[in-house]
Amino acid sequence: PFDGTLDEGQPPPYSVDSECEDAFQELKASLCREPVLYSPDFHREFILQTDASEVGLGAVLSQEVDGEEHPVLYLSRKLFPCERNYAVIEKEALAVKWACDALRYYLLGAPFLLVTNHAALQWLPKMKNNMRLTRWYRTLLPYAFTVRHRAGKDHVNADFFSRLGDLDWSGPDEREPALRSGVCSEAGWRPT
């Protein structure tokens, strides 16, 4: 319900109805349940998980503490109409570029692990035929990262956030358990 309320074409003040208020209260409650966000420790390696779907981009920044992976923050955004026409590898590379840009203050200056479910991104440095990918790769040169491929079925963290724009927020339906499992600890958080 927030997306329609905060459309760019709609001038302030924004009207908030009971549906928005209920969703906001649920969001606040979800943030207080497992997995609770951890404060970043700049002495530990960061793990950046990215994903792209037909409708959006998602990223999760996490760190391993005592053998367990803990989220530091979540990112998500919808794809612009022109971006929806990109090839799959371009969407996946865009997710990496966007997440690195957004998280540059966390990631610059120290090596980090980039986890993706798109195996072709491991070969990004060798791709010379696609100028868009080449430009994006050049913007990633200041970052020191190692790419690790993770099978899509095990890449639920970033995958969930890349699909947020595709969820029907109009009311409970068969997708509600998937939404809950992505936000709560029951089945949504899978460590590396």
From TrEMBL:
GO MF, one example: RNA-directed DNA polymerase activity
Domain (Reverse transcriptase RNase H-like): residue spans on this chain: 41-143
CDD domains attached to this UniProt entry: RNase_HI_RT_Ty3 (cd09274)
Pfam families in UniProt: RT_RNaseH
Claim: Lipid metabolism is one of the keywords in the record: no
Entries under InterPro entries matching the protein: DNA/RNA_pol_sf (IPR043502), RT_RNaseH (IPR041373)
Entry protein name: Reverse transcriptase RNase H-like domain-containing protein
